[in-house]
Design goal:
Length: 284
């Protein structure tokens, strides 16, 4: 046996290379199409304003929105520094998201694992879920004041039912064969819940978290819009009161950036927690 036969690298799997290359091509195509859509919308909007097809008083203007964002960044807003408004809204939405998510997960798992609790409390949860939650903002402001507590409470209510429904359904969809095998092996109810039920429901729970942070952000901003001393919602209300459409759109862009950053963090968390999932694309 020659040395060259020992040191020569093994041939790469062409099927694996094809799958990886296909994923890269798809990612490049998606990026190009996303940029094309963005350029088309913003360019068409700006062009429509300049030729007189769109009234900038009502719909703003992309160049004016950029100018407004630069002015807010350099000189601050009419209600204080821009970074402070963002920090206040992130704090309210983040606190509401954490409280609502933890409460929703715990209640969903508890009711999903206990039929008696489910039968007793399901009717009350359905009634509470049927109430338009945004209208509770006014009640929270009256009860808790104009501070952060009322916005956090509204964000909690917005998040809780989304996470609860997914956690409850995820627990109910757990593999009955795995549960039966764990029971045969002598696992206690807590061991079964921790080792079988929660991992089975984790995909459902994480899927709800992606949606629920947006609801938390909506709850915080709506609460600020109804009554607050600071925050992005108050910034939108102030711009609306002065008929500043560029200011309204600028605040919306700030909200979108915050939401995208939170989505990125949640996706990273999901990939970290679900590393056990096989890569379906490569196995095709």
């Amino acid at each position: 046996m020659t040395d060259s036969s020992i040191t020569s690298p093994l041939p790469a799997d062409p099927k694996l290379e094809t799958a990886v290359e296909r994923m890269r091509r798809h990612a490049r195509l998606v990026l190009v199409l996303r940029l094309a859509v963005l350029v088309f919308i913003i360019g068409g909007w700006e062009l429509g304003v300049r030729v007189g097809l769109i009234d900038p008083f009502f719909f703003g203007q992309p160049s004016g929105i950029v100018t407004k964002l630069i002015d807010w960044t350099e000189n601050g807003t009419s209600i204080g520094p821009l970074w402070k408004q963002i920090a206040v809204t992130i704090y309210e939405a983040g606190a509401g998201f954490l409280i609502g998510a933890v409460a929703g997960i715990l209640c969903g798992i508890a009711l999903g694992r206990n039929q008696l609790l489910s039968d007793v409390f399901s009717i009350y949860i359905k009634v509470a879920n049927s109430i338009p939650r945004v209208v509770l903002g006014s009640i929270f402001i009256v009860a808790l004041g104009l501070g952060a507590a009322s916005k956090i409470a509204l964000a909690v209510v917005m998040v809780f039912f989304v996470v609860f429904a997914n956690a409850f359904q995820g627990v109910r969809e757990a593999d009955k064969n795995l549960i039966a095998n764990a029971r045969i092996l002598g696992a206690s109810n807590w061991q079964m819940t921790r080792a079988v039920v929660i991992p089975s429901a984790l995909s459902w729970i994480l899927a709800s978290l992606h949606v629920s942070f947006g609801f938390a952000l909506v709850g915080a901003i709506v609460g600020e819009f109804l009554g607050a001393r600071e925050g992005i919602g108050l910034l939108i209300a102030t711009a609306q009161g002065s008929f500043d459409s560029n200011g309204v759109f600028a605040a919306m862009i700030v909200i979108a950036v915050v939401a995208l950053a939170a989505e990125w963090l949640l996706t990273a968390l999901e990939n970290r927690l679900l590393t056990w999932r096989p890569d379906a694309t490569i196995n095709e």
